[in-house]
Specification:
Elements (H helix, E strand, L loop, with lengths): L2 H4 L23 E2 L6 E2 H11 L25
Antiparallel strand pairs: 1-2
């Protein structure tokens, strides 16, 4: 019984090697948040179908709101 017969002979039920992408089976770059369990490549290609919307929150600060006055501090 050589080393190659013993290496990874027992199934791994814990850690990063135990989880796979539910779409393609890739064990790397897995997104587990919200129970997605898919890799980042599959998430990017299926994000709209899942219902995710890309947020552009940095534009909120660049666009002035109507009816809101910005008061400047007097020097």
């Amino acid at each position: 019984m050589g080393h190659s017969n013993v290496w990874n002979s027992h199934p791994k039920n814990y850690g990063p090697g135990s989880r796979l992408c539910r779409v393609c089976g890739n064990p790397h770059a897995l997104i587990r948040k919200y129970g997605l369990m898919c890799c980042r490549q599959c998430f990017r290609s299926n994000a709209k179908q899942i219902g995710f919307i890309k947020s552009f929150y940095y534009f909120v600060y660049a666009v002035p709101l109507k009816g809101v006055e910005i008061c400047k501090a007097s020097m």
